[in-house]
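User: Run a structure prediction on this.
Assistant: Running it now.
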Amino acid sequence: MTGGDPLQPQDLVVTLLGTYVRPFARAVWSGGLVMLLREFGFSDGAARAALTRLVRRGLIERVRSGRLVHYRLTPRCERLLIEGDGRIFTLGRLPADAGPWTVLWHQIPEERRLERSRLGRRLRFLGFGSVQDSVWVSPHDHCTAVVDLVGELGVAEYATVFVARAGGGLGLPALVTRAWDLSGLGERYEAFCLGFERYLAPDAPAVSDREAFLVRTRLMHLFRGFAQLDPELPDELAPLSGPRTRAADIFEALYTELAPASQRHFDAVTSAGHAPAGVR
């Protein structure tokens, strides 16, 4: 597997839920999730703490089934995962030219700082950058998504969304520098490609179900990270279309190829019928 930022258990659980649980609209055994996180090097205590925090954040909820505890996605988590899939599976597939740009200006009061924080995280995932504390920009038309987002967060009365074309290119490089930190992004794409393209080579050895699960999960987790880093600017502003498209091609091919084997491993480990005595 390739490198990148260290895995965090809460983020990894969200990746697992979005990849292996949400498509089938079902609950999943808690003990199985703990065992799967163990395969990525997390202790049982860290895994259970991550699950508890996700419950507190309103992303999953506990469901009792006899002596066993299962988790299911909340409607809020479903919406976030659907939104995330829309961004992840179109990354590297947008038209090369920027525009029209989307600009969000808001004046959310200080007592609504939780909503401000959630808005910022969601905007970054959509590829927005912040030029000031309350001004966000994207080189693509995300008007509908942003209008829906501020409505969902209950802050529509404090926000205004503009969709416009840039009137001239002279100041755009300075705007880009202020809104996004793109340093090292090209190298990060190259590292992703180098780490995963070997699994697609004609002479690549077959992998076990467990290996397929580990590779595909980390593939999804790392590619998902690009959504928060790359606004997909045109090459005259950020020449990244080459490595971005290559990474997207590798992601799409490997994500599909490893799907059956990785799902088999996930299902086998999370089957409550295999729960050891005393394990919840």
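The domain at 99-165 is CATH 3.30.70.240 (Alpha-Beta Plaits).
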